[in-house]
Write a structure and sequence with these properties.
This protein has about 280 residues and is α/β, with parallel strands linked by helices. It is built from 15 helices and four strands. A four-stranded parallel beta sheet has the order 2-1-3-4, with helices on both faces. α4 links the parallel β3 and β4. About 40% of the residues are buried.
Length: about 280
């Protein structure tokens, strides 16, 4: 669906249901916001990807429609300058995406899902051996993939890093060569002829970052947690989609209220005299 199609669809829906609308990228994002939404006055509407939502946002802005708030993942937009091309009505996540926002603001949800899908004995033994918490290890693994993705995007390298096999990052962590393992896998999965960055490039890129979490995608965070649960913590062969759903379900309203999306939507809804969230 194009941005024009999405604009027309959400406008037609809004004419029938005149509650304020949060236009998000996908139904998974609805799964984060809906449990905390004041559904008497607001509703979410899933788009068809970021590009369509951004295009629809431009049409909403051009037509003076303020009762529909578009929300999109920040990705690396603040670092590539892409955010400067968006209309002022677009709300960006604080970190890479909504899943990353809640996982970083609410690390206890990682612990909760870990305990529910892992063997307690295996998890405890692993944590003791490596002296690292679940949240810190999940972040470290996804960060290595994230910095490689950042270099690939900002330097037009063209590495294929989608659905990265996070068990290889885990192998690299345990071998003491995390970046090397991640880089080798990224190159192996990509087209021949690409000129990849080096491990030194990855380390140099990370060095000045004050908040490295900005490089971690929610997909990689969930993938890292899944690799640990299935491969090290004695968990069942649970898929990443199930884990992602469990993580979203574990987000309390108090946790959600720490995010920038919560604050932006709260302030926007107040201009209509409406309370956006059930924990306002």
């Amino acid at each position: 669906m194009t941005g024009v199609d999405l604009f027309n669809a959400v406008m037609m829906h809004h004419k029938v249901d005149q509650r304020l609308v949060l236009l998000v990228e996908c139904s998974e994002d609805c799964g984060v916001v809906d449990p905390h939404l004041n559904e008497t006055d607001l509703q979410s509407y899933p788009g068809y990807g970021k590009k369509s939502v951004v295009e629809a946002a431009g049409l909403l802005d051009a037509n003076g429609v303020t009762s529909i708030a578009p929300i999109v993942d920040a990705d690396f937009d603040r670092f590539t300058g892409a955010d400067k091309t968006y209309t002022a009505n677009v709300i960006l996540t604080e970190f890479y995406d909504i899943d990353a926002d809640v996982m970083f603001h609410c690390p206890d949800m990682i612990k909760s899902v870990t305990y529910n899908f892992s063997s307690h004995a295996d998890y405890s033994a692993y944590s003791t051996t490596w002296s690292i918490s679940a949240a810190d290890l999940v972040t470290r693994l996804s960060l290595s993939v994230g910095v490689l993705r950042y270099l690939s995007v900002t330097h037009s390298v063209g590495l294929f890093l989608r659905n990265f096999p996070m068990h290889r990052a885990l192998d690299g962590f345990e071998a003491g060569s995390l970046h090397s393992f991640v880089l080798a896998m990224g190159v192996m999965r990509s087209s021949a002829g690409v000129t990849p960055p080096t491990v030194a490039d990855m380390e140099a890129t990370l060095a000045p970052w004050s908040d490295r979490r900005l490089l971690c995608s929610g997909h990689d965070l969930v993938g890292a947690l899944g690799a640990l649960i299935r491969g090290r913590w004695g968990g069942a062969n649970v898929g990443n989609e199930v884990l992602a759903g469990a993580l979203r379900a574990a987000v309390s309203c108090a946790c959600w209220s720490r995010t920038v999306v919560f604050a932006a939507v709260r302030d926007w809804a107040q201009t209509f005299g409406v309370v956006a969230w059930t924990c306002a």
